[in-house]
Batch of 2 targets.
Target 1
Amino acid sequence: MFVDECVIKVFAGDGGRGCISFRREKYEPWGGPNGGDGGRGGDVVLVGDYNTNNLVDFKFKPHWKAGRGEHGQGKDCNGRDGAPAVLRLPLGTVVTDEATGRVVAELVADGERIELRRGGNGGWGNTHFKTSTNRAPRRANAGQPGETGVYRLVLKSIADVGLVGFPNAGKSSLMNAITNARPKTAPYPFTTLQPQIGVMENPDPIRGGRRLMIADIPGLIEGANEDRGLGHRFLRHIERCGLLLLMIDMAGTDGRDPRDDYRHLLNELKLHDKALLRKPRLVAANKMDLPEAAANLAAFRRRHKVPIIRISCLTREGLDKLGKDLVRQVIRAARKD
């Protein structure tokens, strides 16, 4: 199950109470105060985790509570601090305060730690209230309450390459062919119902290997930016990708015109976020093993003057070249940043 958005409520721990206590020993029945302080409540901490890829754990456990501090004890014994509540979130998670709508955190690095809510301070024991005129204070502080909040978690996947295209263009077949992901493939639209993240290994005996993360976005349709189809809520997963790979069914197997498909894809990306059009992109002309593809490719080249890589996921034509071009473009984009 893939979950990329949910709401959670967090509770930092309350501070422990301070203690009222007096030293009582043989031959010294009126010893001074020795009440210990209460322990501090645990914080709510967010941690970026490379090995976590979705928010399913938070969908079914929406409440997270840190431990409260222990109460102070006699003999100047301070209470133990409460245990923190540690939330391990996938990289690319944006945390928004539901009350204000303000983005309060964004996790983009493995091991990155952000204090979301702070635990309450422990109360003082009566030792702190001893004065020259009050040698036996019977006063101690209660611990402060921990902070609480309601937050929306939204996952924007971090990948090197974002794979976009219309339904049945062959994106899942390409993911099966060049990455370790195994999405469902079938000869009908919308076989992919959730984003898939795959790893492409590209060994190079001279320069060394290069690993690429590729995000496969469920098929878009016209009007995706207006909440139509399956792809509208998943466009955010390509916002952080360094390179876009536009997959075009060059054979037009569903009666579509590849030239119009390319134009509509660019329009949907533009309407979602104009910045997406400024990202470097490659066009993969798929299904070149079918007889109609050659004529459609010639017409496509006449209308759109863009670099095109001919591929066929069925025969594996052009997949090696595609992998090398992806690595080259990703490295080039990283150097520009």
Target 2
Amino acid sequence: MGLLRLLWARPTILLIGLAIGVVIGLNLMPDSLPTVATPAAASSPTAPPVHAAPAKTATVAVKAAAAPIIAPTPASPDVRLQLAKLATAGRTLNVGVFGDSLGDGVWAALYRDLHGDKGFNVIRLSQVSTGLSRYNYVDVQHKTVGQLAAQHIDIAVFMFGANDQQGIVDDGKIYPFGTDGWKAAYGRRVDNLVYTLRQQGAVIYWLGLPKMESHRFDDGASLINAVLAQHMSALGAEFIPTVALTTDANGDYSAYLPEGAAKTKKLMRANDGIHMSMAGYLRITAPVAGMIRRDLASAAPPAQAVIATPVTAPGAVTVAASAADAHP
């Protein structure tokens, strides 16, 4: 009570105390206060649009993929001509393997298959936990451009899809997995990767997804395979399906499959029913290695036959001369 009487009797003291409190409060206030974005009003003829101050409003924006859009070429390049160039390059060819965790296994198998051949250098360019759906996590297109700037690739082998059964954010829009918009956006990303490699003159081989143990996941893998097969056909690139290589005689998923002509079965799949064992990766990449060797061999020009130059000997007798006939 004594303090109240004192303040009532001396109003100047009260005013000084209030001023000191305001100054202290201003000094303790943070530079910016957190605010919550005001949701936009539903569109109607009478409702005006709601505009929030951008400097003080916390908003969540969907960022579009930063991958450069490469204009499609009018027609697919002459793959045979490019193979002929590689076949006569006279140097070790760089085989780049792109993909996710499945691509990692493909690289390991191709390395084992082609490493003994002095004509190939197999390079791992894959990365686990990546894919063509989540460019907001790892932009595969941008990453590939950087990889090619550091390393020339002659032959590109792709295997993506283990992480792609999810929505795609493209041009600020979200497309749920399996919808027409998703297929179109996924196809554009596939096309852009192929165009990027072809700008370096690379020949493309794209592996399809194997049979999956989960029926739901297998349905999604089948959808991805259909998109890949369609785009590879339109691009004039090789698509290598792997479903038949990863199923039993009845066309069903099986972790154990016969190896070669042997009747004994070998473990081909990992425990998750998605990935392969090393034997399984060797099984699905053997056709790719065979195609690479076959395509380069068939594109190489045939050996030039030595044509004898006819000469006229004394007495007007024509004989065929060759290098072996030359004497000092």
